Amino acid sequence: MVINARFLTQPFTGVQRYALEISRHLSGVTLISQSGPAGTFNDLDVLQYGSLRGHLWEQIELPIYLKTHKNPLLFNLTQTSPFFYEPFVLTIHDVAYLKNPQWYGKRVRRLYSALIPRLAHKAIKIITSSHFSKGEIIKYLNIQENKIEVISPGVPEGFAERAKEGFAEPLGDYILAVSSLNPRKNLYNLIRAFKSCRFDGIKLVVVGDSSKVFPGSHGDLIGKMTDGNCRFFNYVTDEELAALYSKAMFLAYPSLYEGFGIPLLESLTCRCPVLTSNTSSMPEVCAEGACYVDPYNVDSIAEGLKVMVEDARLRQTLTDNAARRLAGFSWRASAMRCLEIIEELR
């Protein structure tokens, strides 16, 4: 079996994290990526092939390699696959590009809308990360239920223990948001709610970069809303991110739509309480380990922020509930289920 490792050359978000961790826990497979820099993942043995980049590499050179190497099963972990190649397994994390196309730039929206539904019907198996997303795939792509397997992300092994000492302390008291400038992450409404609370001495710390996938005007709008009480980190290492989770009062994650939401697990494993949305997959992921708000209502988000800031006992209760919830998530178990599927399809 071959893993399409194009994800190693992409901007690193939750989708790429999922692909990386599953790959790290699989054995006896070949990872193939385009030539050139492929991140700093020295623990992975990656075969680099071809001279093209991006979608051109995936649609032209990757299938050439596969067809000249006995047409192995191709395992795709990040939404897309070569159209003129079979057999393959496709991972679809969500269908946001169909449900809310305005969240994406025109080029990406057109590409996803044209490619992913067709790939979904050609795939011999589809993997997704939550039961919520499975329902969305059935509804929007008209895929039979028995073709879809739910394989959730796992708890990052040793993630909390790797926290960089002294990194977060200079920030003082802060609420953490781990969010790109994707409109669906709802950062604009979070900032509006935070500013309306007028907290004394509490900052909003945002980790996440913009991307060409998302409309640029949205990022400009967010920039105009920020002031001295908002601190942005475009990029942090895993060690720095773990430190930010560990020292935060809580994570604010009022996303409008998620297929899963890996920052939720990262936060919970660092014993950082969570405030999140009562929509899509978030209640499925956190269960009793989070405080929930209506992400479309700024007043609801503001009220949630106030409750979490003022009620230390609630934060502790959520942390305790989260510890029990985490037992259900394991990268190793998820990778083993992937191997079982591979064996079933051979």
Describe the structure.
By secondary structure, the chain is an alpha/beta fold. It has 13 helices and 13 strands. It has helices at residues 14-24, 54-67, 96-99, 106-122, 131-141, 187-197, 216-225, 238-247, 262-269, 282-286, 298-310, 312-325, 331-345, and strands at residues 2-4, 30-34, 46-49, 74-76, 88-91, 125-128, 148-150, 173-178, 202-207, 230-233, 250-253, 274-277, 291-293. A seven-stranded parallel sheet has the order 3-2-1-4-5-6-7. Strands 10-9-8-11-12-13 form a six-stranded parallel sheet, with helices on both faces. Helix 6 runs parallel beside helix 7 (216-225) and helix 6 packs across helix 11.
Task: Chart the SSEs and their pairings.
Blueprint: E1 2-4, H1 14-24, E2 30-34, E3 46-49, H2 54-67, E4 74-76, E5 88-91, H3 96-99, H4 106-122, E6 125-128, H5 131-141, E7 148-150, E8 173-178, H6 187-197, E9 202-207, H7 216-225, E10 230-233, H8 238-247, E11 250-253, H9 262-269, E12 274-277, H10 282-286, E13 291-293, H11 298-310, H12 312-325, H13 331-345
Helix pairs in contact: 6-7, 6-11
Task: State the share of residues found in helices, binned by percent.
Answer: 40-55%
Highest CATH level, the class of the largest domain: Alpha Beta
Euclidean distance between termini CA atoms: 9 Å
Shape: globular
Please give the domain count: 2
Tally of strands? 13
Second-tier CATH architecture of the largest domain: 3-Layer(aba) Sandwich
Question: What fraction of residues sit in β-strands?
Answer: 15-25%
Main sheet makeup: 7 strands, parallel
Helix and strand element order: EHEEHEEHHEHEEHEHEHEHEHEHHH
Gyration radius from CA atoms, angstroms: 20 Å
Strand line-up in the sheet with most strands: 3-2-1-4-5-6-7
Tally of helical segments: 13
CATH homologous superfamily descriptor of the largest domain = Glycogen Phosphorylase B
Protein structure class? alpha/beta
Average of the residue pLDDT scores: 91
Low-confidence segments, given as residue ranges, are none
